[in-house]
Amino acid sequence: MEILNNISSRISNETISCEKKDFDECFQFLLISLFPIAPHICEKIYSINFKGDINTIRWPEDSFFIDSSQEVNIVVQVNGKVRANLTVPVSMKQDEIEKLAKEHENVSRHLENKNIIKVIFIKNKILNFVHN
């Protein structure tokens, strides 16, 4: 519904106030989303506006839904004790977050000369280093 409202708000008197590529991407996503509910009409509209068959189009990747400007707070723990809080972009990968956490002063002090046995990572929530 939000996508449809966004598309509708950008169309006024047949003038589109966004780039055609972005509009086409949103419109294509809308058709793909509605396809399981209304396959015949979506297939017809898709064939008029886009090349190819809507039946062969894959569902959009997670990255389509993620706003790259969003940030989350990651709690960094060492052996279950909170040692740092990091604010990172939602799209940041686990290995990048681990590297950033290990560079943090308090975390590096507690991991100094320790053998990390296990790393527990819950996406967008927590990073826990377990050592002996």
Keywords:
single chain, alpha+beta, Ubiquitin-like (UB roll), 2 domains
Q: What can you tell me about this protein's structure?
A:
This protein is an alpha+beta fold and 132 residues long. The chain folds into two domains: 63 residues, no CATH class; 61 residues, Ubiquitin-like (UB roll) (Roll), CATH 3.10.20. It has five helices and six strands, in the order αββααββααββ. The strands form two sheets. A four-stranded mixed beta sheet has the order 4-3-6-5, with helices on one face. It has a two-stranded antiparallel sheet with strand order 1-2. It is elongated, with a radius of gyration of 22 Å. The model has no long low-confidence stretch (mean pLDDT 84).
Note the beta-strand portion: 25-35%
Helix fraction bin: 25-40%
Assembly status: single chain
Largest sheet: number of strands, sense, barrel closure: 4 strands, mixed
Total strands: the figure is 6
| Lateral strand order in the biggest sheet | 4-3-6-5
User: Any idea what the shape is?
Assistant: elongated
